[in-house]
Amino acid sequence: MTVRPDGSEDAKASAGIEVVSPDCPISFTPEEQQVWDYICDQLRKAGLLHMTAGLAISVIVKKYRRWLTALEALDQAIEENGGSIMVKTPNGYSQPHQAVHYVDKQEKELLRWLPSCCLTIPTFAKVKALEKGAEQGDLFLDEIRSFMQGRPS
C-alpha cells in the first residue's frame, strides 16, 4: 500500500503561522517513515500546530502500519481458506481466524489515538472552529441574561 502524496488542499494554514513538524522520536522502517511524512505534511498544510505531538504521531504511525500488516495477513489467510474467515482448530472446532481479532484490536487502538493529533473530522473541525474564535459562550450567563430580559421591571 502506498500513501498518496497529495492530501486535502482545501485545508490551508492560517495566514502568518509557520507550522513546523517535530523530529521523529524513534526510528522507523521506510514504510513507517512515509506515513510519518504524510501525516506531518497534512498537519502543516492544515496549519495545525503539532510540534509537541511527535510521540503521539509515532504511536499512530506504528499502529497504522501494524493494522495494514494485519489486514494483509488476514486477506492472505482468507484467500488460502477459500474465501472464508473460519478455520478448523486441531480439536475439530470451527472458529474465526486469529487474524480477525488482531485486525479488530489494531483498528480500535488506532481509532483511539487518531483524535489526539486532530486526525479525525470532528477533532479537526473543533480545532479549526476554536482558531476562528467561535468559542462556546458561558451557558449560565446566557440563561441569566435571558431570564433578566424577560422580567418586567
UniProtKB/TrEMBL annotation:
<dbReference type="InterPro" id="IPR006448">
    <property type="entry name" value="Phage_term_ssu_P27"/>
</dbReference>
<dbReference type="Pfam" id="PF05119">
    <property type="entry name" value="Terminase_4"/>
</dbReference>
<protein>
    <recommendedName>
        <fullName>P27 family phage terminase small subunit</fullName>
    </recommendedName>
</protein>
